[in-house]
Amino acid sequence: MSSLSELVANIEAAVAALAAAVSNPDFDLSLTDNELHEGVVALHRAESVLSIGSASVLSRWDARRVWLPGGHRSAASRLSLDANLSVTTAQQALRRARSIARLGRTAAAVVAGHLSIDHFDLFARANQPHRYTRFAEHEHALIEQCRRLRWIDSVRLVDYWCQRADATGNGDPAADRSERAALYASRTLDGSVAINGTLDPIGGEIVLSELHRIERQLYLLDRSTGTERTAAQRRAAALVEMARRSATAPAQGRRPQPLFTVHVGDNTARHLCELAGGTVVAPSELAKYFDDALFETILFDGPSTVLSVSQQRSFTGTLRRAIAARDRRCQHPSGCDVPAPLCDVDHIVPYSEGGVTSQFNGRMQCPTHNRDHARHDLGASPLPERRADRLDTFRARIRWGFPREPDDPLDECA
User: Fold this and answer.
1) What is the pLDDT of residues 165-177, one digit of tens each?
2) What is the pLDDT of residue 345?
3) Which residue spans within 101-229 are E strands per DSSP?
């Protein structure tokens, strides 16, 4: 059996050979686009496999406390010094190494190419001490579901699993996200202000929605005036504009209400919910907003047909919100993950070509895919039109009102 030093030397030799090949001026000419793409994907998979191997070795280094000699304060301190890493990177590597003993199936799935190292870290975050037993029971099922999902949906699935795995069904009581919310603002020596902080998901949704809205206004203004600013500079200006508008708002002015789109289904109404941007939240986190909230019901029959949208007075565009609740993200066939709140709703068959304004001919697309003619998927077909009568609506309301218990508890997370 090869020694560890021989294995590391082989890896270094392979990486050196790859670097030499890429530096060859004829490298690009020898590959088709498909071969280049497949090579890039294969390299990232190999990087995930190497990360698992590195974590396995590091876990033994940590368990034997090899880092103790020399008076180092911690394992991360020693690893950071000798490997010339930042302390943050060293700490992340050690967290991964300390998780690998309890995530054997997940590590094997990464080595087999079914999952990435990001999935491993996602599972490690979920596998906290109070969930060890439940995670061991469901690890294989989570792997099987996540290997078929896009990354963003895997995150949502695991977040839902965490909610259901906790004893109360209301999230992790030891890590209440609203209690961890904090903001720090300090003035620097030159008079500038440095801001850093963390908001809970719902508070963050409120702030980000308004920040994105004002940033978009500033972007359009910059484009019309020829002003050049980075996105980060516009966000900073948008934050100042938010404060200015708040300070100059009339004392008795009517405050608009935020709208939360909370997605629930037949089997999930009591436990699962997520904001329009896809962030999973616990029902208990919504409770403090109920007194000021306005509720809107969008009733679906299956994954794509809107049966009815409830009437309410304070917001317009019920059809838009229904399509956003249905699509959840940009519907471009490339698999774009831009969430619905940042997307446009537009006709699939253009209105100028006889396309009707209906749920079946409308979809969410991000500004890039909707407005850039070169990237827009021209020729897409509308959803099959299905007329919904009052009986359809009544049946769907009955199904929604009397949830069935799923055969498999993981069905609630799917």
Assistant:
1) 875 544 455 456 7
2) 84
3) 182-187, 193-198
